[in-house]
Amino acid sequence: MSAASVLAEEFEVLESIYPTELSVISDREIEIDVEPDYPVEGMESFKLKLSVKYLDDYPDELPILALEAVEGEIDESEKEALLQGMATIGEENIGMAMTFTLVSYLREQLSAVAEGKISLRIAEEREKERLALEAEEARTRGTPITVESFKEWKMKFDQDVAMKKAKDEEEKLRAMTPREREEYRKIGTRLTGRQLFERNRNLAHEDDSLMEEGTVSVDISQYDRTKVEEEEEDHIHFSDDE
């Protein structure tokens, strides 16, 4: 049987197997839409177009194969791996009609490719969720406090308080009359009791120096009230009218 007859017979078989997927381009070229061998959960649509060009010595030499994405996406590395796999299968079937075998292999491999894509998508989504969770935990956890960070915070806090106090003071003075401002400033220069105490911690004992030398303190508990009352009675005189 001639190579042309073998090829014509193979086309007839392929048309019966792939009535809607097969397109005959010429007597030596066909295209077949190929989908995964079984549905893959999460993959809405995935379909490739396999182009097959048969050489004069087919089936004793491999046909020229090409792949193109019809639905879904496939990168160049995945495409090259599929073509290399079909070439290996073709080498094993040299001398025989091999198109059906090549398409069956491609359908099986497309299922594996689709599962790989879904697994990669799930892994990427989980990684995004993990990173988002870590970012949220870091945001709510806050920054650990160290001696250095506390000093920096305290310095900034004191500066903010001083600036606010100065601003409030300026606004208060602006609302006063010149005389009120003068009186306010005088009051502000007076030392408080605490300030006086801090300047002279012996202030509480300064009154002791006012006592004259030789002064004797009196203990009231030793004072005899009965004697005083008797002395007062001796000085009382009654008139004849009484």
UniProtKB/TrEMBL annotation:
InterPro entries named among the record's database cross-references: GIR2-like (IPR040213), RWD_dom (IPR006575), UBQ-conjugating_enzyme/RWD (IPR016135), ZC3H15/TMA46_C (IPR032378)
Ranges annotated as biased composition (Basic and acidic residues): 222-242
Domain RWD: from-to ranges: 9-113
Pfam families, alphabetized: DFRP_C, RWD
CDD domains in the cross-refs: RWD_GCN2
Source superkingdom: Eukaryota
Chain residue ranges for the region called Disordered: 203-242
UniProt-recorded name of the protein: RWD domain-containing protein
